Amino acid sequence: MPQKNGMATQEPSVEQALALLSVGDAERAATLLRALLREDASDAEAWHAMACVARAGGDAQSAIALAGRAIGLRPEGHFHITLAHALLEQGHAEPARAAANVAVMTTPRDPRAHEAMAAILEAENRVQEAEVALRTALRLRPLDCEKHLSLAAFLARHGRVAEAVQTSEKALRLAPENIFAHNQHAVLLERTGRMREAEPFFAVVATAFPQDAAALANYGAALFAKGDFEQARSLLQDSARRAPDAPETRTNLGLVQMALGALDEAEQELGAALALRKHDARLAVNYGTVLSDLGRRQEAEALFRQVENWEAAEQDRARALFNLGTVLLAEGRFHEGWQAFEARQNLLPAQHTEELPQWDGADTGGSPVLLYAEQGLGDTLQFLRYVEPAVERASILLAVPEGLRSLVAQMESVQAGRVTLLEKGQTARSAGAVACCSLLSLPARLGLDAPYPWAQVFKDAEAGGLSDGGPRIPLRGPGDGAALRSDTKPLRVGLCWAGNPSYRFDRRRSMAPACLAPLADVPGVAFQSLQRDHTGEELSFSVAPLPEGDMLSTARLVAGLDVVITVDTVIAHLAGVLGKPVWLLNRFGGDWRWAEGSTRTLPDGGAENLWYPSLRLFSQPAPGEGNAPWEKPVKAVAEALHKLVKM
């Protein structure tokens, strides 16, 4: 054994060279191999190792020659595997398959031979045969995490993502410490729309690589999907500092800022993302959305119209057209707005419409048409008014969510038998339906441009409909939102301060109960919670809890109140439908139905919402995070309550 400074040194070998190559030191590996070949040019393993070095360096042509020389000296199976890969990299699929076939025949127990064959067959689009080869490799090494990962990646490439997730789960169970396995599993979960479930796996990767911008970005995106906005923002900001030219990171950061209410910061990030990828329709739609929320509707409209002319995925074009529709509706340009609003149908999951054809709004000669609820409960309540004009053109079957059934059963048209409310489990076809239409599509299908005016669609209290037995409080006047006091009893005020937390931008429309503290200073008021799952502990003043029950029981409760104070959720629509004075605490950049386009000016200079004349807006004057944007509108509500109590 050679000596150096009195110490024994290891003889240079092919194994040493391959070890150097495995850690990325191809240059030293090549130097060592050249030395070995100078001493023995007939060393087939050394020539093969040189072929591996060439492949690692991207020189497939040299790898082919070097592997061929090794095979000429000694035709080993693993030499043919390397040759097969190099030939495939050069685009020579058939010669590659011939080489892989030799490897499979000479070393049938070597899973690498079958993996090489799988890669070649997949390149030739012989997918079924490629899968058989991969599964053969897996059977030979059933406890090898890498083999499961290879199969999972293959399945995902060919659209079998659910199977890929199951396979990657097996890989993780075999090697829970394998960071690559965590990352691949997370990516597969993301592809199946299960980003929330991907979060812990992306977290493992980010912990292992805290300086890696991509790892931080993926973890931040998963936290965003879970609703952990502050932590998501911190990670995405860190990632963006490390890789400022990553449009996906800047986009996700912008959406997080938007969800938190930091609209100016969101505009900067989403604008930067679009600047990095100027003709990306998805990024353009995101940027247009924040422009619209900031009140820059002309810029948003122009951008959405541009996207319509771009070569883009159908879903991105549909998003652009739908968002254009909301801009047009916000500005009161209803004719074009309703048509563009229809693009949402391409963005929603398939509806349970029994494969009925879509109704075009034409007279059916009495044949039944199914009208169905499409999205949230608030949307359903708002658009129920269009059932009345629809009855003039067809016999109507109405399907609504179970939580609204008992309330909708109180509609005048249902009570009078002019509209049939489908029973739970009853099909529209069994009732003779020949077509169907979403409630939200009725304005476009019926050709009714302006908002269909509010009318009392539910039975009056005297008729035994919604009354809880308390005194009826008439409206003071259209749009005033105030009620006449008939006695000295406390003013009964309903409160709702939060919507569904699963909505991505709920943080902006909902408020912390503490924001309502100024209302505690108003004397002569009895507060009633309209907030589901409210215990009363979050508020600094006494509020009666909301009893258990469905929307009908809530409606009966609302019918006995003097005024309802609520954020933008179903309670606003319920109070509006009932004609109750409703004071809406509206976020900055609120929904299109509360915008100027749905507002008319009254002779006395006041404003009236075209959807709900009893509604009065108290809007945030500027965007922002947390409780601060709610201070002014809540203070204005408290002052209005003071005035109402004194009447």
Automatic annotation (TrEMBL):
TPR repeats lie at residues 145-178, 213-246. Keywords: Coiled coil, TPR repeat, Transferase. Pfam families: TPR_16, TPR_19, TPR_4. InterPro entries: TMTC_O-mannosyl-trnsfr, TPR-4, TPR-like_helical_dom_sf, TPR_rpt. One of its GO terms (molecular function) is transferase activity. It comes from the Bacteria. The keyword Phosphoprotein does not apply. PROSITE patterns: TPR (PS50005). Transmembrane segments: none annotated. The keyword Coiled coil applies. Residues 113-140 form a coiled coil. PANTHER family: PROTEIN O-MANNOSYL-TRANSFERASE TMTC1, PTHR44809. This is O-linked N-acetylglucosamine transferase. It comes from Acetobacter malorum DSM 14337.
